[in-house]
């Protein structure tokens, strides 16, 4: 390698000229992914795809999967149907596949309700609704099992990553500390045991 091959130091002015918007100058317009999300007043740029009836089904099913308590609101109260509608309506992989699973599964819930009880799921009493949930939660049939697993994943994931769900798992977020308490003796014992198993 000759001295001509070595990169010479460059000034900040040169860097600013060559790199605009994160793209070397002369290489076209950068695509990127857009601006940072607005988490204060969020807005979804895609249309929602679930019907009001499907959203109502999700609200009731969500409350059966993850019942509320005196201290923590039910998923329907914190807007789980809105969250899932937004999720399955998103145009990114694998969201369209999730939309198919959810919509097909909701149809199964209503069809089975009518077959067993002569009424849609929303018109059933709590005991009969739970019977339908036990039916879809059985791994005996792949389609309804896939629906139940996906719905449960979205209900639990959506709930425990929300302002309503954080307190239920003791998550306080980034908060200022006057002192760092360090690792507890119990945690140290577990770490030491694992390190011994690894021969470290």
Describe this entry's structure for a reader.
By secondary structure, the chain is an all-alpha fold. The chain has a domain at 52-168. The protein is built from 7 helices and 2 strands; from the N terminus they run αββαααααα. It has helices spanning 12-18, 52-65, 80-89, 95-117, 126-136, 142-159, 185-197, and strands spanning 19-20, 23-24. The chain has a two-stranded antiparallel ribbon with strand order 1-2. α2 packs across α3 and α4 crosses α5. The longest helix is centred in the middle third of the chain and has 23 residues, at 95-117. It is globular and about 60 Å long.
The N- to C-terminal Cα distance equals 44 Å
Q: Helices and strands: which structural class?
A: mainly alpha
Query: Total helix count?
Result: 7
Low-pLDDT segments: 1-26
* Major beta sheet, strand line-up: 1-2
Number of strands: 2
Largest sheet: 2 strands, antiparallel
| Rg calculated over all Cα atoms | 26 Å
Q: Percent of residues in helical segments?
A: 40-55%
Average of the residue pLDDT scores? 84
Helix-strand string: HEEHHHHHH
How would you sum up the global shape?
A: globular
As a percent range, the share of strand residues is: under 5%
Organism: Nonomuraea cypriaca
InterPro entries: Gluconate_2DH_su3
Pfam families: Gluconate_2-dh3
Protein name: Gluconate 2-dehydrogenase subunit 3 family protein
